[in-house]
């Protein structure tokens, strides 16, 4: 047993390498809260989460004023107990994005610390189910891009061994269909095309669009409706043969349970940064397995590669690099598949000098 004696907090505001536009937003920032925990033995665990440009300072305030002081003196190995205690400590602000993002930064740091003390990589400590996970790319499928750019990126991904690509939808129906069809014609039938609406549609629009997309053989329709519209997802699932994917905007294990119980989704895209950390992520993944539903997490590929390798029902890792500017090594890719790191910890080779250099002014604090 070793107790937590020090918590260091900092936030870095990363700029995406490409322009990212979807049906509801365009963003040019990835606020990345980073938590470093030191235990009484001097071992350090590093965790993180993210926003897409707003709310980062609120996350940091919650960490500094509430969560970090609450874990000083706690046994770092009691990850489940700490997660539950923090959940109830923030009961007035859960379930919600700010709290979940803050808790994720703490929880991932605790798992990193445990892995390092045991000398194990996360993918083995958390389950060790798979050695590699297929990749699909989203980086070339943004809504502002023209058909030629979509086709070019999809063909490159296919040539690189990726198994699929994702296209944003939300233009007029005939334009969406034309764009998807152009990519399908270029890549042929053996390459997956996924679509993502980013919660932009009403139920009638989603039903109509899903029928228009069905002949194009797409792998799933992601976030067609607002994430809290359970009844809408139930009705949509009854009206289309397309797999419906949800999860990046779901912040509690119970909400995922309701989706699965009501057959309202057939792909689970649980995001470790938005569900509150690795502890609840694993619960969602194993719950999905009992429903024979695949896990294909949203974003955070540098961390999700290890979690996907830990569970048997993970099918895809989404290729969107986030941490290139903060790490000394990139995620390993072989023949279009993501390979989890064998190094003890989360599998992320942090560049702490870069973190120091890119830290947002005023975001740094230490609690001990």
Automatic annotation (TrEMBL):
It holds the Pfam family MR_MLE_C. Coiled coil: none annotated. Residues 147-243 form the Mandelate racemase/muconate lactonizing enzyme C-terminal domain. Its EC number is 5.1.2.2. GO terms for molecular function: hydro-lyase activity; magnesium ion binding; mandelate racemase activity. CDD domains: MR_like. It is an enzyme of class 5 (isomerase). Keywords: Isomerase, Magnesium, Metal-binding. GO terms for biological process: carbohydrate catabolic process. Its cofactor is Mg(2+). InterPro entries: Enolase-like_C_sf, Enolase-like_N, Enolase_C-like, Mandelate_racemase_C, Mandelate_racemase_N_dom, RHMD-like. The keyword Lipid metabolism does not apply. This is Mandelate racemase. It comes from Devosia equisanguinis. The gene is mdlA.
């Amino acid at each position: 047993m070793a107790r937590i004696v020090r918590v260091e907090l900092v936030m870095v505001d990363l700029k995406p390498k490409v322009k990212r536009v979807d049906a509801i937003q365009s963003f040019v920032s990835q606020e990345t809260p980073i938590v470093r925990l030191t235990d009484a033995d001097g071992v350090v665990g590093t965790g993180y989460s993210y926003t897409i440009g707003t709310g980062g300072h609120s996350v940091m305030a919650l960490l500094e004023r509430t969560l970090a002081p609450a874990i000083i003196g706690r046994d770092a190995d009691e990850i489940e107990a700490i997660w539950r205690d923090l959940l109830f400590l923030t009961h007035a602000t859960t379930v919600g994005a700010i709290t979940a993002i803050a808790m994720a930064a703490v929880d991932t740091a605790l798992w990193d610390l445990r892995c390092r003390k045991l000398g194990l990589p996360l993918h083995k400590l958390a389950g060790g189910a798979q050695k590699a996970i297929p990749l699909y790319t989203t980086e070339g499928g943004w809504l502002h891009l023209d058909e030629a750019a979509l086709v070019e990126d999809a063909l490159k991904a296919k040539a690189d061994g990726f198994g699929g690509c994702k296209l944003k939808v939300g233009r007029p129906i005939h334009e969406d269909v034309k764009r998807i069809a152009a990519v399908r014609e270029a890549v042929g039938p053996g390459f997956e095309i996924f679509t993502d609406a980013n919660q932009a549609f009403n139920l009638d629009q989603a039903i109509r669009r899903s029928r228009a997309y069905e002949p194009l053989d797409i792998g799933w329709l992601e976030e067609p409706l607002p994430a809290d519209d359970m009844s809408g997802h139930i009705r949509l699932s009854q009206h289309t043969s397309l797999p419906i994917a949800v999860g990046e905007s779901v912040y509690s294990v119970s909400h995922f349970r309701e989706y699965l119980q009501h057959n309202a989704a057939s792909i689970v895209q649980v995001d470790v940064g938005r569900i509150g950390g690795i502890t609840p992520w694993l619960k969602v993944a194993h719950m999905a397995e009992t429903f024979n539903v695949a896990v294909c997490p949203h974003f955070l590929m540098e961390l999700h590669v290890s979690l996907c390798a830990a569970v048997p029902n993970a099918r895809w890792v989404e290729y969107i690099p986030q941490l290139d500017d903060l790490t000394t090594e990139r995620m390993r890719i072989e023949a279009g598949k993501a390979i989890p790191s064998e190094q003890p910890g989360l599998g992320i080779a942090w560049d702490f000098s870069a973190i120091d250099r890119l830290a947002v002014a005023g975001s740094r604090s230490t609690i001990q």
